[in-house]
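Q: Entry one of two.
A:
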Amino acid sequence: MRTAVAARAPSMPLSADPPARPTDTGASSAPDVDLSAGPVILDVRGLRTYFFTYDGVVKALDGVTLQVHRGETVGLVGETGCGKSVTAFSITKLIADPPGRIMDGKILFKGANLLFGVDREAKFKPVKKTNRVKVTRYYRRIKAGQDRMTAVRGGGISMIFQEPMSALNPIFSIADQISEALFLHRGIPIIEGLLKAKTRGPEVEAALQAVADAARSGDRVAMRATAEAFGVATGLSTFGTQAYYLFRGTSGDPEPKIREMRKALRRVELSGLQRNYLVQRRRLLGLESQLKASFLEEMRTGKLDRNHRRYIRSKRLGLKLSTIYLGLWGIRGYARRPVTDEMFWQVVQHLEGVSIANPVQVARGYPHELSGGMLQRVMIAMALSAEPELLIADEPTTALDVTIQAQILELMRDLKSRIGTAILLITHDLGVIAEVADRVCVMYAGNVVEMGPVGELFKRPLHPYTQGLLSSIPRMDEPDKKLESIPGSVPNLIYPPSGCRFHPRCPHAMPVCREKRPPMTVEGGGHTVACYLYNGPVVPG
């Protein structure tokens, strides 16, 4: 963790005049992030999410604005109940309705407004003499909005949930659950690989014999290299993975393993029925891709194209009816057997990618058989199997021991560098943010109160709430320092404080703080803050 984690700005005067800007303590030399390096992939503007309860309307998010650029990691921090997870669920439109509703704002993902049509999904009528609101929902429009989101979830935006067991189905194996997501988003290249695979020939036999020779010698490195070469010879990298785990630990005569590998190769020799099934699935996935493209264009332009979607759906229905025999009991299992085998080994490869030691055993297992750290790795593998452009990680290291936390954070950093995925990281741990984030957004009571590059914000925290968070962190260079705490607690968002929501707990509160919400101002170097103690240029809304 950087030594600047607990750096704090000098105390501010209790006056209405803006104080002098905090000076650079020199505790951190982290460079500012060049925000022009990549285009904006996620742009959240004025997001408002409310929950309609019997006690009243909970204004969980009340005007959240943030951006995530391609290939960067943005940290979202704050106390419990400040709206971090609600922000993540709002971006993916997974807010439970009822009681929640996204009321207003824009969520632009690569130019497509994910909240297109949300204003027509419900009507709201205040109940007299109460703080309640009667909500009339139009479920047809809500379903249409959810259908549009299928064009974005998975391949566009993936999410690692805070509690893996709540996102994994206990009655399906790990392989079944990851392969479903994988085939939905990467099915076409997988099917094309199966159709072009080579299972016989001198080149394949020579490569298989090389794996057997390496296994006989006991050289793991050579066995991995020859297994990869075997995968190249067959045209399917999964055959290399399968050969490696089949021959691993072989001692003595490898001939039984060779026969077993040849049997696995024969299972991928497609019959006419199996080839027809793969062609049908490829066409169906192609139609699904066209449908998703239609939804994305609708969210981008705001223009409905129902006729085009009807045409695609009619073609999809016609294809299913013309090949209905492929879905009959007894035929379907035989027809999809090559896909089932291929998907299992694809899952093993993805579990290898998240550094799981025994991926074959884990893929065959069930969620309740795994530890918390292993479940988090499975969730990461599932989220990244579709190679998303944006990954939302909702406290991925919560309740994990320190060694597992470090491994998962290193894994996320490695995956970002390899795939180029942007990450929105939600966490309470400011040490994690200092280690992996490029920029930081500090949230309080449903509002973003400060944003900036991680080095700048830790070196020069401006908002009193940010200063309080950093003051509560122990420092290695000051072991005898007394840790401070922020007095009070997060307010009841049914009756939020007027003006700045932090003013009841702020040691620098002024009369204006109680009357009017402070605007977000620019304080240099991409550093913005919503506080009347500063008077920089106002960020355009």
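Q: Entry two of two.
A:
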Amino acid sequence: MLTLSQVSKSFAGRTLFRDASLQVNRRDRIGLVGPNGAGKSTLFSLILGEASPDEGRVSMEKNMIFGFLPQESAPAGDETVLELATSISPALVKARDVIKRHDAGEHVDDETYHDAMHAFGELGGWQLEPRAKQILAGLAFRERDFDRAARTMSGGWVMRAHLARLLVMEPDLLLLDEPTNHLDLESLMWFQEYLRNYPGSILMISHDREFLNQLVGSIVEIAHSRLNRYRGNWDDYVREKAAREEQQLSAFKNQQKEIASLQEFADRFRAKASKASQAQSKLKQIDRMEKIEAPQSAQKTINFSFPQPPRSGVRAIRLKDVDFSYGEMTVYRGLNFEAERGQRTVLVGPNGAGKSTLLKLLAGVLEPQAGTRELGHNVKVGYFAQHRVEMLNGRHTVLEAVLDSPNPVGEQTARTVLGSFLFTGDDVFKPVAVLSGGEKSRLALVKLLLDPPNLLLMDEPTTHLDIGSIDALLGALEQYEGTLIFISHDVHFIRSLAKSTLHISAGQLTPYAGDYQYYLDKTRATSARAALTAGEQLTDSRPNEADAAPAQRGPGLREQKEQKRAEAEQRKAEAKAVRERAQMVKDMEAKIHELEGLQQSLTAELEAPDTYANGRAMALNRELLKVQQELERTTAEWESLVK
């Protein structure tokens, strides 16, 4: 259905593709990989017709429909989220706009209106809405979000709405550029399952190795200006690539030996008249050879030793008898938690269980409502979350932001590390203010790694990083000698770093004193990714004595009854906590809806000319500011609850 034949393309004097070929057939699932700058986005541009090859040809089936999701910055206007999700073609949007204007009482002549109604029906417009609502719900939109103007939502939610539009459209070929960047774990899992049964073909760029493992049937790597195809998923690609490189290295060495032997003969005998013709023949034989290139590993290592934090005491941090609630909804009651120096723990559990809340309590972002937070001797806490990017100075350049540190490094060191996180060349002179959210996130990581605390708390640190940058981050954290507690949905990242696992459900902590595989084995999990959000249903196999506090052996009948009663009371308390959380979420959603209505009403009043004539503008502005601040605060609390 799509063929690239011997395509060559150069950009800014650099050759991206040379005689590159690729065939995409129906229902293919292809992962596109390669280092930053290799040409992945350019390949998408060639397929979409936004760029033309210098040589070669891009051909496709007649009337083939593409759907493209960029990595960032998809547009949003005055349309609602639901309207955006159902905007599957310009013709349908045009017909819908005519119908809307007519229904709103605007003058539309009868013929235009009837043509629009006919076109809307022919294009399947009436059937789209139920399908769009189902997909939007799968991507974690609330029902009351459907009628919100898309432009009033954050960039990440706009990207989700555009993703919903593509799934509603169901194009013949989906082109996806890092589609999981803006999804929480449960939405990601829904999306992954949805794509399993997608009827069209998929070509995707993704940093998520587990996502590629679950979905793709082949990997196309951009290397040495060519497209190299490997059958299988990401893990198959890694194994096959290593085998190919080993074969190539062996063939390269054998050829170099042969060339050396031929050259030695030519050098020895070219001066002898009786052997001169033979010597010349050997040289011509070398020239005729198709030279085998030495294999080059796509992954570059960082020749840089990250600074280590000062050593802390044995106990890094302790939460003792901590209570914490959002309003009437209890998250933790009597929470006790300790982390020791050098510990590397991943937090797992269902959405809303309290993982991010625990990180914020440890970081001091949230204050316990009862109990204490005790830092160990000489402990310096670092907390990496999305809001951390707001601490960057927008007036600084990227390089200045890195050099502005209590323990600054040299410019060459700073540029080396920035290059590992995709800030190359003149990118380091960009103002921080113009960076995308993903770029700011990467920059905040660089600043953190160059001046690391000895207690590092990280919430989804791999979001917006490509595979090379994730490996750079892993390299830094593998050297890190401090204490690390983190949340992630990247299974590869977790497996590489976690030495212990803490399962959180309904405010209860269950420690597992082994790595992530140990946790999977103990809980009898069937999926490494699903186990990240599993609740109590996974914990069929209880932790052994190495995982939990030691218990007295051989309890008597009375002790058994007391234990059963305590367990029943705990289950009742957990169920109550879940109900309270659900009610709190519902109440907050109602409050947000009310505030949004008030915000809309005040904005409309400020836009009216009479407001300025009667002198009410200043008072209205003050009231609007209060409403906006309350809306932001309530929305932040709601996000903490549902995360």
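A: Comment on entry two: The two ends are 41 Å apart (CA to CA). Confidence is low (pLDDT under 50) at residues 298-303, 537-559.
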